[in-house]
From TrEMBL:
Protein name: ABC transporter substrate-binding protein
Keywords from the UniProt entry: Signal
Residues in the signal sequence: 1-35
UniProt similarity note: Belongs to the bacterial solute-binding protein 5 family.
Domain Solute-binding protein family: 82-437
Gene3D superfamilies: Dipeptide-binding Protein, Domain 3 (3.10.105.10), Periplasmic binding protein-like II (3.40.190.10)
InterPro entries: Peptide/Ni-bd, SBP_5, SBP_5_dom, TAT_signal
Protein location: Periplasm
Primary residence: periplasm
Length: 536
């Protein structure tokens, strides 16, 4: 099949899907259409409370969950990470992978009634997000030009091919911002930030700080017949026990991410009024690890780091601390996302192998049985991480490594880790559907940036890994990218810059009366224009 024919079919398929989503005929599924009538209020936990709701200015998890109902991107992504239409009804990619042309929906409006056009896309991607958004800035700086060919066609011309470019148009990565409100202003100080205006199915109504955020149905929404819900309340509940009680009593109808402590999950799964799913996190594909400051002794020795991998039982962590949620990690790329390489060095749980590596590296046991001492800064994200710290301390003690646990609050943790003031800590990051977007940032040496969290805070540097990540990002041929990423993963798993633990799964609890809450790979951060309440 020629590239031109393939692109034509992709465009036709995307346009057909967009039409189906927008058409009232899409609601005429036998036995289902009657249930999808309008009405109902959904209460969703948001924790912690977001600092702001303008998604172009803040991409923290709680902001994404709330603002994903207000703002939209050009694309969304299915569970298999294939792009699906949103504000773009179709798109084409040139054979050389350098020109991306998007056809936009023609009936979308901003919440103040102004039309959404290609000029908003150009403004969002070439001006607003370039100034305010760390990931979008890195992506769209690769463009030679961004231009509106007409009111409903926008074209991006890249300086060179960039394999994951389409993944950059998901709502948290590139939320569309209204040009008529922000152009020529100080984006961060614009008074409109207090009343966010997007194109999404729900409009901002009220924010009672410390209590709730109230969104109401957008009656001028561009998808015919949607949304179904009258409104959504995001309830702020700081205490973990109170969040679990709210689910049990039915006062909230949804939780997500870290809302529920893992040890509460088995009990809540048995409730008759809720369903639990771990789907909807595929685009983020969070992967947890023990972060290692490779500048510090004894952690600068690769054999010590390899010994850590053998000393820790990842299956025990999954089963006894995360209560079955997740999969033991084998390397830096989550197996549910693109370009995972399974054929890497394996680190089975084997304390004897760990001790042999420590002996080889010259870490002999002292009179008290201790070979070395390290500090572990426990991540302050709940009781589960505290329990994990206790387990790691015990596991390392078994092979002769004395671990001192240190604690701090969330702000202190970020400050210490980003400024390299630690030996070990826990961390997990999102992968955003492609290694070029969410994986390479952790391991490339150009991203060793003191004071910047979620960068290469370990200080790991390998010129070959840098080269492989750069080459893989600069081609749009999947077979070439797979080969390059596979080689990079094999090197990283040999070097152990971090001790990978789990490919994480988060439990999303949803009241059984509410349908279609999780329908794509961005899950609870979706627009919720298809969510409906079954009325008894």
């Amino acid at each position: 099949m020629s590239n031109r024919l393939r692109h034509f079919r992709q465009t036709l398929t995307a346009a057909a899907l967009a039409a189906a989503l927008a058409s009232p005929l899409a609601l005429t599924v036998p036995g289902v259409a009657a249930a999808q009538e309008r009405g109902g209020t959904m209460n969703i936990i948001v924790q912690p409370e977001p600092p702001i709701l303008v998604l172009g200015l803040n991409q923290q998890g709680p902001t994404q969950t709330v603002a994903g109902k207000i703002y939209q991107g050009l694309l969304t992504f299915g569970f298999e990470l294939k792009p699906q239409p949103e504000l773009a009804e179709s798109w084409e990619v040139s054979p050389d992978g350098k020109v991306y042309t998007f056809k936009l929906v023609k009936n979308a409006k901003w919440h103040d009634g102004k039309p959404f056009t290609a000029h908003d896309v150009v403004f969002s991607t070439s001006k607003f997000l370039m100034e305010t958004h760390p990931r979008a800035r890195a992506t769209f700086s690769k463009c030679e030009k961004i231009e509106a060919l007409d009111d409903y066609t926008v074209q991006f011309t890249l300086k060179e091919p960039f394999g994951p470019f389409l993944q950059a148009f998901e709502v948290s990565s590139a939320p569309m911002m209204p040009k008529h409100i922000y152009e020529g202003t100080d984006f961060k100080a614009n008074p409109a930030n207090a009343t966010p205006i997007g194109t999404g199915p729900f409009k901002f109504k009220e924010w009672n700080k410390g209590s709730y955020i109230h969104l109401v149905r957008n009656d001028e929404y561009w998808k015919a017949g949607k949304p179904y819900l009258d409104d959504i309340y995001f309830r702020v509940i700081p205490d973990a026990a109170s969040r679990a009680v709210a689910v049990e009593q039915g006062t909230v109808q949804q939780t997500q991410f870290n809302d529920i402590e893992t040890f509460d999950v088995p009990r809540l799964k048995g409730l008759p009024n809720v369903e639990m799913t771990t789907k909807g996190y595929e685009f983020f594909a969070p992967l947890s690890w023990i972060e290692i400051n490779t500048r510090n002794k004894p952690l600068d020795d690769k054999r010590f780091r390899q010994a850590m991998m053998h000393a820790i039982d990842r299956k025990f962590i999954r089963d006894k601390i995360w209560f079955g949620l997740g999969r033991p990690a084998t390397g830096p790329v989550n197996s549910v996302t693109r370009f995972h390489e399974a054929n890497v060095r394996k680190y089975d749980f084997d304390p004897k192998k760990a001790e042999a590596l420590l002996e080889e590296a010259g870490f002999k046991k002292g009179s008290d049985g201790t070979r070395a001492k390290v500090r572990l800064l426990v991540m302050p994200y709940g009781e589960t991480w505290t329990r994990l710290g206790e387990y790691v301390k015990q596991a390392m003690k078994r092979v002769g490594v004395d671990v001192t646990l240190e604690t701090t609050d969330a702000a202190g943790w970020v400050n210490r880790v980003s400024n390299w003031d630690y030996d070990l800590t826990f961390n997990f990051v999102y992968q955003y559907g492609d290694p070029a977007l969410g994986v390479s940032r952790t391991y490339v040496s150009e991203n060793i940036r003191k004071g910047v969290m979620f960068s290469n805070t370990m200080g790991y540097a390998n010129p070959e890994v840098d080269k492989l990540f750069a080459q893989a990002a600069q081609t749009n041929k999947d077979d070439e990218r797979q080969q390059l990423y596979s080689t990079a993963q094999k090197i990283l798993v040999e070097d152990v810059p971090v001790a990978w633990l789990l490919e994480m799964e988060f439990p999303t609890f949803v009241d059984k009366r509410f349908k279609n809450a999780v329908t794509t790979a961005i899950g609870v951060n979706e627009s919720y224009d298809s969510v409906y309440m079954v009325k008894k």
